[in-house]
C-alpha cells in the first residue's frame, strides 16, 4: 500500500502550502514533479551545464555520463534489451511523428488505428494519407470503449502497421496490447504502442509485450515537460531513416556526402535537452521505487469511490466501462447538453480543485458521438481519499444549483 | 448576451491588464461567431458563468441557484444597466467638458472629475457672503431686461457678447478673470465688465473705477481693472493704498477721489447694482456668454466651447 503522506512530502506544491495545497486531479494531462526530479535538473544547470557527446572537457564528460545513465535507467525501466533502443524525444507526439516519417510508408500502405486515438496518433497518419496516399483504417471499439480484437482481426489483412494507444486518455481503458501484438505479428505486421498514459501507472515490459515501437512522454510520469522517449527494437531502428538530421547525427560529412551515426544518435538531431533527459531519468528512478501494483490499487480505490458517488447523480454519464477496474485512474464524465467547462472552472474557483474539461485531444471521438465535451478526473499516486471526497462534495454543490 | 457584456468589460480592463486582454479576445471570438451566425464554441460563456457562480455558491447556494436559473435575464438586465450607465457617464464627460461640471451647467452635485467642485464655487450674494458651492436654479439667472449700457465695454459690435460680473475681493472672480481676458483677446468678443461688491468693502474700488473711466477714458479704466484683479487682494482692499495705486497709473488722486465720492458716482453705482440684481445672480463670478450664464470659475475650455457654440444641449 502506498504511503501517500510520505509521497506528498516529495512534492513541493503539495507539501509547502500549510494545508492549502491544491487538489490536483489532472495528472493525465500533466503529472506533478517530485523534488528529486527538480533537484537533478537544477544540479545540471548549477554544476555542469555543458554539452554531451561533443566536448572533451570534464564538464562535458559529466553530461555525457549523466545522459548515458538516464538512457540506461529508462532502458531498464521498460526492460529494453539495450540502452540504444531508447531515443530521447520531446514528447510522445514527436515519437509518433518520428515513426510516421521514418518508416518509409508508400502509397496504398495501410495503417490501423483505434477509434479513440489522441490527435497525436491520428493526425500524423492522416497527414501521410494526404501527402503520399497511405490508407488509414479505424478499428471500432466495443460499445463500452473496450478494444474489439475481432474488429482488429477483420481489418488486419494487408496492413503495414498497427498503431494504437495502450491506455486511453479518454476513458482510461487499457487495450490488450499483448494480444494485439500477437495478432499483428502472426500477420507479419509491425505494432506501435502509444504508452503516454500507461507508462506512469503500469509496469511496461517491452520484451514481454514484444512490441516493435513504443513512445511515451516524461511530463505524465513525474518527469519534466518537453521530454519523451521513442523505443524501437534495435533491428527495426537500424532500418528506419531519420526524419530529423543535422548536428550530432553524423559520423562525418563532406560537401558531397555524410555518414549517419548508429542508433540512437542518428535520431537525436541537434543539441538535446540535457537537463530534461537527466530529470526524466530521475523520474523513472523515483517511480521504480514503487510497486506498480500498489499504484494501480491506490488509484482503483479512489476511482471506485468517485465512480460510486458519480453514479448517484442521475444526469452524469461516465465515458467508458462502468467498472472502475477497467478505467485505470481516469473518470471522464459529462452531462447531456451541458458545457463541462463550467464544472472545471467552478471546482477550481470554489475549492482549488484542478480537473480537465474539453475534448481532451480526442476530438474525433467526441465528434463521432456528438458529445460536446466532458470533465475528466485523473488520479495518481499522490492523490488522497480526502481529495476525492472534497471533489465529490464540491461537485454535489454544483449539481444542486445547476 | 454575457459575451457582449464580457467583451465590453474585459475590453476596458484589458487596456490595463494582460490577463483581462486574453479574456477580451475570447469574448470577441465568441461575439464574432455569434454575429456571423455560428455557435460560440469556445466555452467562454460557460467559463464566465462558472466563475460568477463559484463566487456566489460559497456564500449562498440558494442565491447561486437563482442566478444560474435566471442567468440570461440577469445578463440582459446588467447589459441594459451598463448601456444606461455608459450613456450617463458619456453625458457626464460631455457636461464636464462643456460646462465644467458632470451634472450640467452650474450644477454643483458630485463630479468625479472635479470632486471638490472648484468649477462651481462662488462668493454668495446672500447672508454672510460666504465663499463656496451654492446651488441655485440657473434658469433664473438672465440678462433679460438688464440695461448694460452704462458698464465699460470693449469690441462693441462683435457678434459674440461676454458679460463678466465679478468682485475684486472674490477669489473665484479673480480665478476666472485671466481666462475671460484670454477669451476676449482670442475671440474679439464684445466684452462688458461689471463690478459687483459681493465680498468685503469693495464699493470704493468700484467708485474709483467709475471715476477713472469718466476722467481718463475706457483704456485707463481697463488698465486699472486688470491691476485690481491681479494685485494682492489684501493690498487693494486696504483703502489707504488707493492713493498709491492711482498714483502708480499717474492719475490725479484728488480729482479721482472727488468724483468717486461725489453724488453722481453714488447714484450711478447704485443704479448699476440695481441693474445687476435684475439678473437674479446668486454669486460671483457670473459670466454671460451670448446670454448663457456660467456661475463660478469654469475652465477656459468651457468659455471657449460656449463661444464656439460647441454646446448642443
Class per helix and strand makeup of chain A: alpha/beta
Secondary-structure element series of chain B: HHHHHEEEEHEHHHHHHEEEH
CATH class of the largest domain in chain B reads Alpha Beta
Beta-strand segment tally of chain A: 15
Helix content of chain A: 25-40%
How are the strands of the largest sheet of chain A arranged?
2-8-7-6-5-3-4
Look at the structure and name the CATH superfamily of the largest domain in chain A.
Type I PLP-dependent aspartate aminotransferase-like (Major domain)
What would you call the structural class of chain B?
alpha+beta
Shape of chain B: elongated
Looking at the structure, what is the overall shape of chain A? globular
Query: How is the CATH topology of the largest domain in chain A named?
Result: Aspartate Aminotransferase, domain 2
Cofactor (chain A): pyridoxal 5'-phosphate
EC number (chain A): 2.8.1.7
Keywords (chain A): Pyridoxal phosphate, Transferase
Protein name (chain A): cysteine desulfurase
Quick overview of this protein structure:
The complex is a heterodimer of chains A (402) and B (313). Chain A is an alpha/beta fold.
Structure, described:
The complex is a heterodimer of chains A (about 400) and B (about 325). Chain A has 2 domains: about 5-25 and about 290-400, Aspartate Aminotransferase, domain 1 (Alpha-Beta Complex); about 40-290, Aspartate Aminotransferase, domain 2, CATH 3.40.640.10. In chain A, helix 12 (about 290-310) packs parallel to helix 15 and helix 13 (about 340-350) crosses helix 15. Chain A has 15 helices and 15 strands. Chain A has a 7-stranded mixed β-sheet, with helices on both faces. Chain A has a 4-stranded antiparallel β-sheet with strand order 11-12-15-14, with helices on one face. With about 400 residues, chain A is α/β, with parallel strands linked by helices. Chain A is globular, with a radius of gyration of 22 Å. Chain B is α+β, with helices and mostly antiparallel strands. Chain B folds into 2 domains: about 1-90, no CATH class; about 120-305, Glutaredoxin, CATH 3.40.30. Chain B is built from 13 helices and 8 strands. A 5-stranded mixed β-sheet of chain B has the order 3-5-4-7-8, covered by helices on one side. In chain B, strands 2-1-6 form a 3-stranded antiparallel β-sheet, covered by helices on one side. In chain B, helix 7 packs across helix 11 (about 255-260). The longest helix of chain B is centred in the N-terminal third of the chain and has 29 residues, at about 70-100. The two termini of chain B are about 30 Å apart. Chains A and B meet through helix 13 and helix 15 of A and helix 3 and helix 4 of B. Chain B: InterPro entries: Thioredoxin-like_fold, Thioredoxin-like_sf. Chain B: Keywords: Isomerase, Membrane, Transmembrane, Transmembrane helix. Chain B: It holds the Pfam family Thioredoxin_4.
